[in-house]
Design goal:
Blueprint lengths: L10 E7 L2 H4 L2 H11 L6 H13 L1 E5 L2 E5 L10 H18 L8 E7 L2 E6 L8 H13 L3 E5 L4 E4 L2 E5 L5 E5 L18 H18 L3 H16 L5 H16 L4 H7 L21
Antiparallel strand pairs: 1-5, 1-6, 2-3, 4-5, 7-8, 8-9
Helix pairs in contact: 2-3, 2-4, 6-7
Length: 281
């Protein structure tokens, strides 16, 4: 995604299926699954297992037993996998392998039923996006909530995606205002390596998410400040930060950071200042 190049007329959209699991037609889901796993050594076993799961969704309500006759049961371990396979079938048939949208779809990324889309309007067919929406609704049998914005930026899961003035795609970490940042307390019974692994893992996530090194620096410093309010010693946080910097310069993180910042500002963690205010942005 980081390498995607946009244009001034490109439009940003997010798509989200409305009541995905209960909206998937059971019979059609089994037919599609059979097509996907055709030729697999365990084809019959997998199909029989899916049939049992889809046709035996039982639940109790006010002392009575009911059977769900269509859709995937909420909470069934197999539901996310079956739902993702169901959507992927249409994605591959009508988008990935289709020649209909070769000019319009600049970028399409999906996580189960959450989709981010960069659409390039077709001057020769101003109704192409309406056709795209109608086809998506008709083929999947699912109602899709489509969100757009008048700005050049849109939030998708934990990312904020924007098209810059130079047409480059900028991605940075997005955090909801109601996020409580309840990281594992330092005084918990977890092994010390688990706690240091938490810091390292989130640092890597932020590094991969942010196109600009400055955005990574901003969000990571906020993260370290929040750890202080969860009881983490400042000296430990600074020490781990310096170790991450050293690893970055020794190729562990180099593949990502070298693309983002080749300036003399690279000694990031040596300049870290942990906030002392009780208010965290």
């Amino acid at each position: 995604m980081h390498e995607t190049i946009g244009e001034a007329t490109d439009e940003l959209y997010t798509l989200d299926a409305r009541s995905l699991y209960t909206s998937i037609p059971t019979d059609q889901a089994l037919i599609i699954l059979a097509k996907i796993i055709e030729g697999h050594p365990l084809e019959d076993l997998l199909l029989d297992a899916a049939t049992i799961v889809l046709r035996n969704n039982l639940f109790e309500f006010q002392g009575k037993i009911y059977q769900q006759t269509t859709g995937l049961a909420m909470g069934t371990p197999a539901a996310p996998t079956l739902a993702s396979l169901y959507i992927s079938f249409f994605e591959e048939r009508y988008i990935t392998r289709s020649k209909l949208w070769g000019r319009e779809i600049v970028l399409l990324k999906r996580f189960i039923d959450d989709i981010v889309l960069i659409w390039r309007p077709n001057a020769e067919d101003k109704y192409s996006f309406n056709f795209f929406k109608a086809l998506l609704r008709k083929q999947t049998g699912i109602i899709w909530d489509i969100t757009s914005t008048n700005t050049r930026s849109i939030s998708f899961l934990d990312l904020e995606i924007s098209i810059e003035k130079d047409s480059s795609l900028r991605i940075k970490t997005y955090q909801k205002q109601l996020n409580l940042y309840l990281y594992t307390p330092f005084r918990s019974s977890h092994p010390r390596k688990s706690l240091t692994g938490l810091i390292r893992g989130i640092a890597l996530k932020y590094l991969r998410q942010n196109t600009l090194f400055a955005d990574f620096k901003r969000i990571f410093c906020k993260f370290l400040t929040r750890l202080v309010f969860r009881g983490y010693p400042r000296d430990l946080i600074i020490s781990i930060g310096e170790k991450l910097l050293k690893d970055a310069s020794q190729d562990l993180l180099k593949s990502k950071t070298s693309e983002r910042n080749s300036s003399s500002e690279r000694p990031l963690f040596l300049k870290i200042q942990i906030g002392v205010s009780s208010k965290i942005e």
